Amino acid sequence: MIQTDEKLQKVLARAGLGSRREMEKVISEGRVLVDGRVATLGDRVDAAVKIQVDGKPLRLDTAAAKPRVLLYNKPEGEICSRKDPEGRRSVFDRLPRLQGERWISVGRLDFNTTGLLLFTTDGDLANKLMHPSTTIEREYLCRVMGNATEDVLKRLTDGVQLEDGVARFSDIVDGGGEGINHWYYVVIMEGRNREVRRLWESQELQVNRLKRVRYGSVFIPSKVKVGQWIELDEKEIANVYGMAELAMPVTEAPAGGRGRRTR
């Protein structure tokens, strides 16, 4: 529940409206009202106040609800934005609908990349999981076209210069294969745009299949097929908070509770 004198941006972030940094920007732009007055950075609130964001009331019972986390097995051909001018399908199209909250994607996967995506209603959690200071392993299975020699693999683990700085795989494991295509499991510690593909391309090798199979200690369960999602239970959510080095909020579950579902 909302505690006495919590920072306004923390309440907004926990309600799933964005990260604390994003909410600080929203507050500074004068888009938040507290009890009818324009809020300012530094304001603290309790459960008795009435909050409006962009003219819409924020349900404080929503802000106090238990955070939710989904695991989604993304197929090819979906974008990670909510809307697309080209009319392509979005990963958000398959997720369960929310009232007073929104799903926040923990990072992104390319249009043609498949696999594990996490979503949460806690903007603070999403922001911490994605922040470069939180070094969380991301493991991918990739099919590479070309000859990846031992020298190439060594360069990729030692580090190569990309246009946005030095990048490297922290681990590469041979996944087998014959002929021109070969499979590798690779691990990166950051979530830069197209980082896995660009690392291989720096060695004149092409990735023609790419799937994220792990995010930190979270794997895709075998029963969650491509295009399906599963809602994590309380123990699993606590594990995700632990990965982000955050304490899981102590809140009361909404009436009716939620079961574990796969869709």
The CATH class name of the largest domain reads: Alpha Beta
- The portion of residues assigned to helices is 10-25%
Q: Give the tally of structural domains.
A: 3
N-to-C SSE series? Answer: EHHEEEEEHEEEHEHEEEEHEEEH
Alpha-carbon distance between the termini?
A: 29 Å
Largest sheet: 9 strands, mixed
CATH superfamily of the largest domain: Pseudouridine synthase
Rounded average pLDDT:
87
Our count of helices gives 7
Structural class: alpha+beta
Tags for this model:
263 residues; alpha+beta; Pseudouridine synthase; four-stranded antiparallel sheet; 7 helices
Structure description:
This protein is α+β, with helices and mostly antiparallel strands. It has three domains: 6-63, RNA-binding S4 domain (Structural Genomics Hypothetical 15.5 Kd Protein In mrcA-pckA Intergenic Region, Chain A, Roll), CATH 3.10.290.10; 69-132 and 218-243, Pseudouridine synthase; 138-215, Pseudouridine synthase (2-Layer Sandwich). Helix content is 21%, strand content 28%. It is built from seven helices and 17 strands. The strands form four sheets. Strands 7, 8, 9, 10, 13, 14, 15, 16 and 17 form a nine-stranded mixed sheet that branches. Strands 3-2-5-6 form a four-stranded antiparallel sheet. Helix 1 crosses helix 2 (20-28).
Helix-strand blueprint:
Layout: E1 6-7, H1 8-14, H2 20-28, E2 32-34, E3 37-38, E4 44-45, E5 51-53, E6 56-58, H3 60-63, E7 69-74, E8 104-106, E9 114-120, H4 123-130, E10 138-145, H5 150-158, E11 160-162, E12 165-167, E13 171-176, E14 181-188, H6 195-201, E15 206-215, E16 218-219, E17 229-231, H7 234-243
Parallel strand pairs: 9-15
Antiparallel strand pairs: 1-4, 2-3, 2-5, 5-6, 7-9, 7-17, 8-9, 10-14, 10-15, 11-12, 13-14, 15-16
Helix pairs in contact: 1-2
